[in-house]
TrEMBL record:
Its main location: mitochondrion. The keyword Disulfide bond does not apply. The keyword Membrane applies. The chain crosses the membrane at residues 23-42, 62-84. The lineage of its organism: Eukaryota, Metazoa, Chordata, Craniata, Vertebrata. It is found in: Mitochondrion inner membrane. It comes from the Eukaryota. Its cofactor is Cu cation. This is Cytochrome c oxidase subunit 2. Residues 91-224 form the Cytochrome oxidase subunit II copper A binding domain. It comes from Myiothlypis rivularis. Keywords: Copper, Electron transport, Magnesium, Membrane, Metal-binding, Mitochondrion, Mitochondrion inner membrane, Respiratory chain, Translocase, Transmembrane, Transmembrane helix, Transport.
Length: 227
């Protein structure tokens, strides 16, 4: 859960999000090195006398051609690795379908039994004490921790986007099309997200709440939910 004046990402709650944060730090270090080099060269150019010794310096031309290519390779290789990891879905433990509407979500669990429910944002007037305004819903998505969850995402009317930052998940919900993504919650907790695609007047009022529990608690919850 993000807080006020937070400058960094939310705490990672899935292996994919941990990889994304590490790549973010890796890219920032490369950007810092480039900015430091450019600042040094700019300062050196402004403070030193002009010289014509580098007019025919082929070595420098080779260096400033090869060096950027090497930088791009060091960014591209880990980026492609993470992209393949995010697209790879091998034998999920549970499959769930998320359907976007104006302006709420419908969830379908079809692996255990025909379990379907709608998830609406709780109005501020009805919000229990201690819950988050504009983020809490009447029915949370319950998933077992340390289990691969496949989410099939679609929409019923306009474009939506199913996004939970701390789990590293963001998938567009497109009418007439099925997109899929996956995540693995590495710890128990409650993770908040929101629709991340402008979908109309109440776009800001269709939050997503994913609660990660133990397998026993998940089985108890699914047995108590009406079909």
């Amino acid at each position: 859960m993000a807080n006020h004046s937070q400058l960094n990402f939310q705490d990672a709650s899935s292996p994919i999000m941990e990889e994304l944060m590490e790549f973010h730090d890796h890219a920032l270090m490369i950007a810092l090195a480039i900015c430091s080099l450019v600042l040094y060269l700019l300062t050196h150019t402004l403070t030193e006398k002009l010289s014509s010794n580098t007019v025919n310096a082929q070595v420098i031309e080779i260096v400033w051609t090869i060096l950027p290519a090497m930088v791009l390779v060091t960014l591209a290789l880990p980026s492609l690795r993470i992209l393949y990891m995010m697209d790879e879905i091998n034998e999920p433990d549970l499959t769930m379908k998320a359907i976007g509407h104006q302006w709420y979500w419908t969830y379908e669990y079809t692996d255990l039994k025909d379990l379907t429910f709608d998830s609406y944002m709780i109005p501020t007037a009805d919000l229990p004490l201690g819950h988050f305004r504009l983020l809490e819903v009447d029915h949370r998505v319950i998933v077992p921790m340390n289990s691969t969850i496949r989410v099939i995402v679609t929409a019923d009317d306009v474009l939506h986007s199913w996004a939970v930052p701390s789990l590293g998940v963001k998938t567009d919900a497109i009418p007439g099309r099925l997109n899929q993504t996956s995540f693995l919650a590495s710890r128990p907790g409650v993770f908040y997200g929101q629709c991340s695609e402008i979908c109309g007047a109440n776009h800001s009022f269709m939050p997503i709440v994913v609660e990660s529990t133990t397998l026993a608690d998940f089985e108890n919850w699914s047995s108590l939910m009406p079909s």
